[in-house]
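Weekly sync, protein design subgroup
Attendees: M.S., D.O., the rotation student, P.L. (late)

Item 1: inverse folding check
M.S. brought a backbone from last month's batch and wanted to see whether the design step gives back something sensible before we order anything. D.O. pointed out we never logged the input encoding, so this time it goes straight into the notes. Structure tokens as presented (126 positions):
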């Protein structure tokens, strides 16, 4: 079992930055790929970024590439999402997720993930 708790969301002006954190419990964090997804009001949940279990490879949605950076600290069981140059279109609830499989490549489909956090709200004002 993996329990995930996101933090770091809030209200920010366009062009600003936020850093999201996802604290994981359990002993399997370091062996699972991790991802960030988001869901805006009235829209389906969408993939944002994912990182391999080892932290040596990451993948981003085109909409955030060059602005967001995913990282992890396996010694602290924590996943991060650094968000820069934020836009109003980035407004959403952001979720972290832990992959179903161990020691796999990068997973970018929501079906590849077994555990989800409760989400943290990010609001970007114009």
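Designed sequence read out in the meeting:
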């Amino acid at each position: 079992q993996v329990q995930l708790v996101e933090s770091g969301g809030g209200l920010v002006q366009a062009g600003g930055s936020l850093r999201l954190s996802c604290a994981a419990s359990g002993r399997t964090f370091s062996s699972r790929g991790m991802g960030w997804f988001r869901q805006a009001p009235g829209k389906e949940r969408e993939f944002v970024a994912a990182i391999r279990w080892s932290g040596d490879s990451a993948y981003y949605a085109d909409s955030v590439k060059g602005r967001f950076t995913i990282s992890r600290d396996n010694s602290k069981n924590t996943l991060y999402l650094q968000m820069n140059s934020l836009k109003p279109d980035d407004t959403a609830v952001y979720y972290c997720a832990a992959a179903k499989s161990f020691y796999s490549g990068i997973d970018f489909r929501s079906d590849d993930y077994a555990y989800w956090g409760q989400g943290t709200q990010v609001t970007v004002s114009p």
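Discussion: The chain has a mean pLDDT of 96. DSSP finds no helices and eleven strands in the chain.
Action: P.L. to compare against the previous round before Friday.
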